[in-house]
Amino acid sequence: MHRRHHAVPLMQAAEQSPTLARLTGLARDSGERLRQVQELIPPGLRGTVRAGPIEGATWCLLVDSNAAAAKLRQLVPALLAHLRTKGWAVEAIRLKVLTRGR
Asked: Which distant-in-sequence residues (6+ apart) come within 8 Å of 49 by Cβ?
């Protein structure tokens, strides 16, 4: 007997799997959070910051350099306050500096 495998679009597969649907939702939420705070991040730093994982009430921002992370640490209270005014239940923002593979 031959089994036919049909290609399924990625988004459809993600929606049909509870685990993937949850991860897709978290990734979408993380991206939306970053869009909400973009205006608070200095223009020169915006390109160095990416949305990271959400773990409970903690959101992670991925940053390209230690210098950018140092500046963003100063902005964390304002970012948190802004997110809360937009209805996000964020208690903490963690910054993770991405290291380049050598």
From this structure: 34, 41, 61, 62, 63, 64, 68, 72
pLDDT mean over 18-34: 82
Distance CA 48, CA 61 (A): 10
Q: Is the dihedral of CA 11, 13, 18, 23 positive or negative?
A: negative
pTM score, two decimals?
0.77
Residue 61's contacts (CB-CB under 8 Å, 6 or more residues apart) are 34, 49, 50, 51, 52, 72, 93, 94, 95, 96
